[in-house]
Amino acid sequence: MPDETPQTDTILIAHATVHLVSKESFDLLPFESGEDVKSKVTDLLESWAKSGFLLRGRHIYPWHQVARIEVVSVEEMSRSESRQKLIDWEINDQYRLQQDFWKTKKAQPKKDPAEAKEGSADGKP
Can you give the pTM of this predicted structure? Predict the structure, then answer.
């Protein structure tokens, strides 16, 4: 029978920030582990370094654009509390990514649907 380690009631959550060469920075979704959050962060960093890219939402950053990745805090919380917080972080992260997608420098004027139909009848684009 394999040795089973009893699960602890708490979990470790590491918050990390990516700093780019361009001076931009952003937070990664938190890392979590019941025992060793440091190895989770290290494993992910090693896989990113091997691939040569850091993926963040719809953005792909070549590894040479990443100045550093900094773990800014580690907290310990109950498993049930961590589940809810991770859901909240993921929802907020998705919301930020969606808001970034809809940003524009200059909004294009909307075309009147009647004008669009007339233009297509005349053979004009």
Answer: 0.59
